[in-house]
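Quick note —
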Amino acid sequence: MENGKKLIKMNYKLKKISGDASFREFYRVKKNNKNSIIVFARKEKYKNLIVYSVVNKILNSNNVLSPKLLKNYYKDSMIEITDLGDKSFYDYIKNKKNKLKDYKKLIELITKLQKIKFKNQYYFSGKKIRFAKYSLNLLHKESDLFFDWYLKYCSKNIKIGKIKRILRKELNNIYKKLYFKNNCFTHRDFHASNIMITRKKLSLIDNQDAIIGNPLYDVASLIDDVRIKIPKNTQDDLFRHYIQKSKFKAKDQSYYKNDFDILSVQRNLKILGIFVRLYKRDRKPNYLKYLPYTWSLIERRTRNPIFNNLKILFKKHLPLKKLKKINI
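Predicted structure written out below.
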């Protein structure tokens, strides 16, 4: 960040703040008694700076509070954005006994996001941005992280390539059973730690991975958040609340349930891989503590009969008892 530091040290007082699982670094800026945030992207600067800024602008224009761009230092691999504070919804909710009322507000925020109408393309800093749809290939690319990272480092003496081909084929059959089309704003990482409480209002951060996807994806991301254990009855109430509030209608509630369960399992297989990758590649061991609960969520959602064949294949080809123990 040397060039960027030289650029901003003249006027700003910087303090590094905790980051996330990405390659970005965040610095709180104090200038004239006002705060802002410098986002520095070591890698993937197009996504982490340009796409991020465009998504934030889309959200703010649709009355969803998110960081606003103040200054663009793209050539120096950074941008300056508004400071939404440091109190996350996770900090607010983690010790509350009754979580339902507050979580319902997040479900309603999801339904608000799903009313956003995308343009065919957007422009920022001379670059054209088009948002992709959640394709079958992308679902596989994400769940492949389970094989490529989790299995690789959490199991020994198994033929990962063969197992990957067998399980991937069944996952393909399952993904093809998704009912709802990819046709709404999908944050893609919508959970309690990515919602901030700013001046008593909900605000949304970490928006750079937004895509056009299935309406149940963000719902599964929120309700089956691996970082915080929501009581089962509260999870069920939140799921019903989404169905009640959603603009997406189906003849039978089983369509909602199947899509929810499929996307929850897909996402949590991905998370198992990502958290091991964060440990092995990025030296971030803190995420390993979430692995047991991630497995318990997968077990709960695969009780749906739609996963019967997958469970048989898991039992046949994977040493599940050993896999579920953190031994890397």
